[in-house]
Amino acid sequence: MQTSLFENTETAFALKSDSELERAYFLFKMISKEPLVRIGTAAARFALGANLPVEGLIRSTVFDHFCGGVNEQDCMTSVDKLYSANVCSVLDYSVEGKEEAASFDECMNKVIGLVKFADEKEAMPIVVFKPTGVGRFAIWQKLTEGEELDAKEQVEWERIKERVNAICKIAYERDVEVLIDGEESWMQSAADDLVAEMMALYNKEKPIVYNTLQCYRHDRLDYLKKLHLEARARGFTIGVKVVRGAYMEKENKRAKEKGYLTPICASKQATDENFNATTRYIIENLDDISLFLGTHNEDSSLLAVKLMGEMGIAKEDNRVWFGQLYGMSDHISFNLAKEGYNVAKYLPFGPVKDVMPYLMRRAEENTSVAGQTNRELELLKAEKKRRRL
Fold first, then answer.
1. What is the reported pLDDT for 371?
2. HSE-up of residue 154 (Cα within 13 Å, Cβ side)
3. How many domains does the chain have?
4. Cα 191 to Cα 343: distance, rounded to the nearest angstrom
5. Which of 99, 161, 188, 227 is the most exposed, having the fewest neighbouring CB atoms within 10 Å of its CB?
6. Quick one: pLDDT band at residue 97, thresholds 50, 70, 90?
């Protein structure tokens, strides 16, 4: 399979109407201009904070392009549409920044509900949640930094473990894979340890629980190799979602302020090499480790395809999935799905106001990765031209 496969815009945008294509082109054009993103996100924050009637405008533009809906049922039109092109969906409850126990319980119940919902839908074999969705960041951080929890915090930590276990247990019972997102390095070790315990409990026969490796961190492949040894010794299999990472500027800034070596790779090239080396290691050890490859990078996607071919791994082998975010990199998702590979779109959902922090981060990330946005524009432009012929 050649890179030219990703040039097939007819397949990439087959599900988009002409008006949806125009909206996508308009949005990426706006996102490509940093001052507009800065002004737009500030204006949206102000308008929502002041309860101005802007939800309808947000819903019909950026929200509907990058999100599946305001609740699970609202997402089903998108889920069914994607599945008609052999692309599965991972519903992602994208409400961020809550810090109260009631919110953590609500998130746990929401994810458990999603597991049950997914169990009945062939189009939804996977669910996802963030560690800080079910427990306070400060607790994860304290444990990662080796600090003692006081009695009250210890009770809080036990409740966090109960929430994570409740999600993983129902996922195991319903045979639905659960991806646990990676977050900032100064809370991640506590999450890594707890996820490894969940794997030891529920990944005996096959991976149900997946951890996330953010490969802009230079230590992640070494971590995976150590986990691999532990898994062999304890008799469980590993599930990993491999991504480049989402907190680079925050990581570098904190490292500089606190005077420690940044965990982030020295360059974009080093990150790419680390990502590809991690992908290679997993595919070469597929009997022990299953892969969810979360990437918008064409070269990394093609590398995985090439390695699968060399290793004689069937395209539909459930141990390898390709994933992209809804509203982005359709040229990768739909062209791979058409070739018969396992592909899933991350479909964020939640009330418009609550999902705005996610959408703002998405816009800011796209602005900082100019090549990504330009690529989207180039492909959308090519499809618009093709439809006019």
1. 74
2. 5
3. 2
4. 26
5. 99
6. low
Q: What is the pTM of this model?
A: 0.93
Q: How many CA atoms lie within 13 A of 385 on its CB side?
A: 8
Rounded distance between C-alpha atoms, residue 235 and residue 109, angstroms: 30
Helix (H, G, I), strand (E, B) or coil at 290: strand
| Sign for the pseudo-dihedral over CA of 44, 48, 53, 58 | positive
pLDDT at position 247 over 80: yes
Domain region containing 222: 70-349
Model pLDDT for residues 310-337, shown as the tens digit of each residue: 999 999 999 999 999 999 999 999 999 9
Cα dihedral 305, 307, 313, 319 in deg (nearest 10): -80
The Cα diameter of the chain in Å comes to 70
Nearest to 12 by CA among 358, 346, 382, 304: 382
Q: Cβ(26)–Cβ(65) under 8 Å? A: no
**Mean pLDDT value of segment 78-103:** 90
Whether residues 34 and 121 share a domain: the answer is no
Q: Answer yes or no: do 112 and 179 share one domain.
A: yes
Q: Are 62 and 74 members of one domain? A: no
Considering the domain architecture, whether residues 12 and 107 belong to the same structural domain is answered as: no
Examine the domain organization and report whether 27 and 154 are in the same domain. no
Are 7 and 153 in a shared domain? no
Beta bridge partners of 239: 210, 290
Q: Is the pLDDT of residue 261 over 70?
A: yes
Helix (H, G, I), strand (E, B) or coil at 232: helix
Q: How confident is the model at residue 354 (pLDDT cuts 50, 70, 90)?
A: confident
| Nearest-angstrom CA–CA distance, 148 and 30 | 47
Stretch 260-276: mean pLDDT, rounded? 96
Residues 6+ apart with CB under 8 A from 40: 30, 363
Residues 28 and 135 occupy one common structural domain: no
